[in-house]
C-alpha cells in the first residue's frame, strides 16, 4: 500500500509535534488523543475520519480536505477553516473548543456543532444553512452577511446576530435567548 494513501488505521496518542504526520490521503482513520498543535496538515486529505480527544490548535490547514470528518472532545483553537479545500468540506463537532476559529466565507451547510465553545469565532460570509448549534457558547462570535436560514439556535447561548445583515429566514431560536437578535438596539429585556 502506498505511503500516500492510508486506510482503516488507528493512531493512538501520537505526538505529531515531534514526528509530523506524513502528507497523505487518510480514509476511515481514527486519530485518538493525538497532538497536532501548531503542526502543518496542509495538502492532506481526511475522508470519513474521526479525531477524538485531539489537540489541533493552531495547526496549518491550507488546502486540506476534510470530508465527512467527526471531531469529538477536541481542542481546536485558532484554526483557519477558511484556508481549507472548499470542495466537499463537511464535518461535525461534538464537545470541541473552537474559540478564535475562522469559518470565513465557507459553505458548510447542515454542519452540527454540539456542546462546543465557539467564542470569538468568525462566521462572516459563511453559509450555515440548516446547521445546528446544540448547547453551544457563541460569545462574541461574528455573524455578518451569514446565511443561517433554517439553522437551529434553540439551545445556543451568548450569541449576537443582527437580522438586518444576515439571512435568517426560518432559523430557530428559543424565547429565553432571542434577545441575542436585538443586542444592537441596546435595549433591556426582562424575563
Tell me what the structure shows.
- With 191 residues, the chain is mostly beta strands.
- It has 2 domains: 1-74 and 83-90, E3 ubiquitin-protein ligase SopA (Pectate Lyase C-like, 3 Solenoid); 98-182, E3 ubiquitin-protein ligase SopA (Pectate Lyase C-like).
- The protein has no helices and 11 strands.
Task: Give the secondary structure arrangement, pairings included.
Layout: E1 5-7, E2 10-12, E3 25-27, E4 30-32, E5 45-47, E6 50-52, E7 65-67, E8 69-72, E9 91-94, E10 112-114, E11 132-134
Parallel strand pairs: 1-3, 2-4, 3-5, 4-6, 5-7, 6-8, 8-9, 9-10, 10-11
Main structural class: mainly beta
- Major sheet size, sense and barrel closure: 7 strands, parallel
Integer count of domains: 2
The separation of the N and C termini measures 62 Å
Gyration radius (Cα, Å) is: 17 Å
User: CATH homologous superfamily of the largest domain, by name?
Assistant: E3 ubiquitin-protein ligase SopA
Order of strands across the widest beta sheet? 2-4-6-8-9-10-11
CATH fold-level label of the largest domain: Pectate Lyase C-like
Q: What percent of residues are in strands?
A: 15-25%
The count of β-strands is 11
Tell me, briefly, the overall form. Answer: elongated
Helix content: under 10%
Number of helices: 0
Mean of residue pLDDT values: 95
- Known CATH architecture of the largest domain: 3 Solenoid
The top-level CATH class of the largest domain is Mainly Beta
Give the low-pLDDT segments.
none
H/E element sequence: EEEEEEEEEEE
Amino acid at each position: 500500500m502506498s505511503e500516500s494513501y492510508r486506510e482503516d488505521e488507528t493512531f493512538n496518542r501520537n505526538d505529531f509535534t515531534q514526528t509530523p504526520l506524513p502528507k497523505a490521503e487518510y480514509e476511515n482513520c481514527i486519530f485518538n488523543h493525538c497532538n497536532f498543535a501548531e503542526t502543518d496538515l496542509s495538502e492532506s486529505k481526511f475522508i470519513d475520519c474521526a479525531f477524538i480527544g485531539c489537540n489541533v490548535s493552531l495547526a496549518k490547514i491550507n488546502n486540506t480536505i476534510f470530508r465527512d470528518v467527526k471531531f469529538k472532545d477536541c481542542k481546536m483553537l485558532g484554526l483557519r477553516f477558511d484556508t481549507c479545500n472548499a470542495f466537499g468540506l463537511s464535518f461535525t463537532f461534538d464537545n470541541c473548543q473552537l474559540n478564535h476559529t475562522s469559518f470565513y466565507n465557507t459553505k458548510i451547510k447542515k454542519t452540527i456543532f454540539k456542546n462546543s465553545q465557539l467564542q470569538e469565532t468568525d462566521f462572516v460570509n459563511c453559509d450555515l444553512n440548516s446547521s445546528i448549534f446544540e448547547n453551544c457558547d457563541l460569545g462574541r462570535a461574528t455573524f455578518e452577511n451569514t446565511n443561517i436560514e433554517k439553522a437551529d439556535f434553540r439551545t445556543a447561548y451568548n450569541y449576537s446576530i443582527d437580522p438586518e445583515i444576515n439571512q435568517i429566514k426560518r432559523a430557530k431560536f428559543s424565547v429565553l435567548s432571542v434577545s441575542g437578535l436585538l443586542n444592537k438596539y441596546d435595549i433591556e429585556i426582562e424575563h
